Amino acid sequence: MYKSDIEIAQSIKAYKIEKIASSIGLDRDSIELYGDFKAKINNYDKIINDNKDKIKKTPLVLVTAINPTPAGEGKTTTTIGLADALKKLKKNVVVALREPSLGPVFGVKGGACGGGYAQVIPMEDINLHFTGDFHAIGAANNLIAAMLDNHIFQGNELNIDKDKIIWHRCVDMNDRELRYITAGQGGEKNGIERRDSFDITVASEIMAVFCLANNINDLRTRLGKIIIAYTKDDKPITVDDIKATGAVLVLLKDAFKPNLVQTLEGTPTIIHGGPFANIAHGCNSVVATKTALALSDITITEAGFGADLGAEKFLDIKCRFSDLKPACVVVVATVRALKHHGYSYLANEGKDVNKYRIDDKKFDLNIENLEALDAGLPNLLQHVKNIKEVYKLPCVVAINAFPTDTKNELDEVEKQCKELGVNAVLSEVWSKGGEGGINLATEVLKQINNNSTNNFTFSYDLGSSIEEKIKSIAKKIYHADNVEFTDNAKSQIEVLNKLGFSKLPICIAKTQYSFSDNAKLLGAPKGFVITVKNIKVSAGAGFIVALTGDIMTMPGLPKVPAAEKIDLDSSKKIIGIF
């Protein structure tokens, strides 16, 4: 019988965090302790400034994946296991990850610290309040909202139009009831009545700013530029305008220090920031990544959801702002997930797949089915092509192993990847930890050392128009036929052009389940059109957000939330997180 993730994590005797810090050259004065097994790196700015040349030379490996399915892909598990494997090969390696959001932890995911024998610990703390970073970001977001409403209540010197307020309050929880609310009820002494809404904390622009700022001064500048409303004559109002920047910076001062923890095998791990990739840009903080690069000989990081979202935004947004260049990209897939894509694709094509169904939503993925696998493989192959042909980066495919995988299925994945000039490597880190990732680590090192295949480029030119940049992503990365802009989006683009924001990079908010903006079109769909419904600027973050499909900035809980299984046992030990 398999142990649960939390049982495995709680069975490991972790090193004191001072020892982990010492292993990468950090003395006691360089860290602030949060108990025995967590710390903040308090001199991150000096570390980055003193190691600028090293940061540029240290190989950065990006781990991404196919479009996610209910079968699971194991991107974070692979990231951690790869790092542990490199450590076994005597490499000085540091992992850089995002912090989990409480919304998914209590919603569908139930945890986000890897799995099996490839986890970061203390996983209970990391999945829950950790060092309080998300609370600080939420407080900073809501301070802006409070000061904005107070400015209007106290006389509205800036002539703000209450119907043109675009700044939302936030909470780090999946709560669909807060998507649309009426604020300020109860008469004039209780505020100005208006329509409002909440976002989940990871969708706040504060989170994006927090993760893209290069240092504390850059953080201050970006915070001040955030547009929160417009006047009655359409002039943008910023955080600087309501004089909130200093107070917001104070709330974020300690949170901005990267967090240091460890894997089950004692590999140093920096976890910091956590924007969603289907709403925001899906990457950990720039300061975390650069600190990891400064302290290691190889840094392993990941980007959220599939490569069409997280990797695209990592490469087109984060790398632009931070002057980072990946040495290699790992695309994670499972045979089970590829078969799920295949069954869904075959069903959309009118094929009878009902005999393979367990219920309306699930297929039997435990039986060998090469037809379904072949129908699902284009999803993986399209992601690989994008990495190799659009971004011109070395690529490795990691097949996250399951006991039900057959030799025929694994051979088929390997064969089709080889036809693209990419090696597919079986990863067994979930069951074996770092030892199960040695072959993957060896292939990654081979690609890192093969500099001739790394000619990193972006998928679009910043000088192109807003429309052309969006079309470039849609056609090159999603493989859409075209992009349609609603009349509302067209008018918003006109405003942004007039305000001088046309040269910013693009962050597309889109379903994570498909290359398209339709969550039901799995595999590698063709002949579809992306519809852009709304366009807005995140002036502090420094990008333009294009909203497609039915994407929500406040998720809801599923019918059976993971929270129902989370509890304390009689010995006050947390159970149910996975």
Write up this protein.
With 578 residues, the chain is of the alpha/beta class. It has three domains: 5-132 and 255-453, 3-Layer(aba) Sandwich (Rossmann fold), CATH 3.40.50; 133-252, Domain 2, N(10)-formyltetrahydrofolate synthetase (2-Layer Sandwich); 466-548, Formyltetrahydrofolate synthetase, domain 3 (Roll), CATH 3.10.410.10. The chain has 20 helices and 25 strands. The strands form six sheets. Strands 1, 2, 3, 4, 5, 6, 14, 15, 16, 17, 18 and 19 form a twelve-stranded mixed sheet that branches. It has a four-stranded mixed sheet with strand order 20-22-23-21. A hairpin with a 5-residue loop joins strand 24 (567-568) and strand 25 (574-575). Helix 5 packs across helix 18. 54% of the residues are buried. The mean pLDDT is 95.
Query: Average pLDDT value?
Result: 95
What does the largest sheet look like?
A: 12 strands, mixed
Q: What is CATH's topology name of the largest domain? A: Rossmann fold
| Tally of helical segments | 20
| SS content category | alpha/beta
- Give the uncertain stretches in residue-range form: none
Give the percentage of residues in beta strands: 15-25%
Integer count of domains: 3
Instruction: Find the count of extended strands (DSSP E, 2+ residues).
Output: 25
Write down the overall geometry: globular
Span between termini: 16 Å
